[in-house]
Design brief:
mainly alpha; Arc Repressor Mutant, subunit A; 11 helices; about 0% strand; elongated; disordered N terminus
């Protein structure tokens, strides 16, 4: 009797392709992820990749999300404590570790050739970063608006990771990440034993803004909240500059 052939489903093919593409991305960088190379590594024909992902850019977008999945899971599951500054430090360390462990994926996720574009998983990581910084604002510890602080922190982390990707692991300064992290944190927030309560105008303005946006009793209309938030952001950024 002829043995029955097992048919590979589209989902199984996609999984094999993504695993192969992720391996090539990690070992050889973005340039190694060609349709032909991925097809050969996955044991499929190139047309199968086009059917699943449309084109090479679709494949790159898919493998970016595939590799970022576990990183985002870790960020979502991160314990939120009563020390929002330490929570942000832990998030920085997780971000840096991911970037240096998966440089090819990091470049695909955060360094886009077209301004204003970013894969959905990378956008989600920015949303999580903003939430962490907003908690610092709720404690009255920010020196500037949540929006500006988020951009400063993300820019510093991005610049640090990209600078270190070019350096071999043996040549990296093991203390540099902490130095950059703490310098950036000190620029956006009040750190140290004095950070128990709001003590200056930026801190009070941001704390009031975050409290305002989380207020659900309907004391202000959405339009009034939007206007008040804009004013408080201006106060926070002007006083913090």
């Amino acid at each position: 009797m002829e043995a029955r052939r097992t048919r590979t489903t589209g989902a199984e093919t996609a999984e094999k392709v993504l695993e192969a593409a992720a391996d090539l991305l990690n070992s050889g960088g973005v340039g190694a992820v060609s349709t032909r190379a991925v097809a050969a590594a996955a044991g499929v024909q190139p047309p199968a990749i086009y059917r699943q992902f449309g084109d090479k850019q679709g494949l790159l977008d898919a493998v970016t999300g595939f590799v970022l999945h576990n990183y985002l899971q870790d960020k979502r599951r991160a314990v939120v404590t009563n020390d929002p500054l330490q929570d942000l430090r832990d998030s920085w360390d997780l971000h840096v570790d991911f970037g240096l462990t998966h440089p090819g994926c990091y470049i695909l996720a955060y360094v886009q050739p077209q301004p204003g574009t970013m894969p959905a998983p990378a956008r989600e990581s920015l949303v999580i970063l903003r939430q962490l910084i907003a908690r610092i604002g709720e404690y009255g510890l920010l020196r500037m608006s949540v929006k500006r602080a988020t951009e400063v922190m993300h820019g510093a982390a991005l610049g640090y990771v990209l600078s270190q990707i070019r350096v071999t692991p043996e040549e990296r300064d093991p203390q540099l990440s902490e130095i950059v992290r703490e310098s950036t944190l000190a620029a956006i927030a009040t750190v140290g034993p004095q950070h128990a309560a709001p003590s200056d105008l930026p801190g009070r303005a941001v704390a009031l803004r975050e409290s305002l946006l989380s207020d659900a009793d309907g004391a202000l209309t959405p339009a009034e909240k939007s206007m008040m938030a804009e004013w408080l952001d201006r106060l926070a950024d002007r006083a913090g500059s």
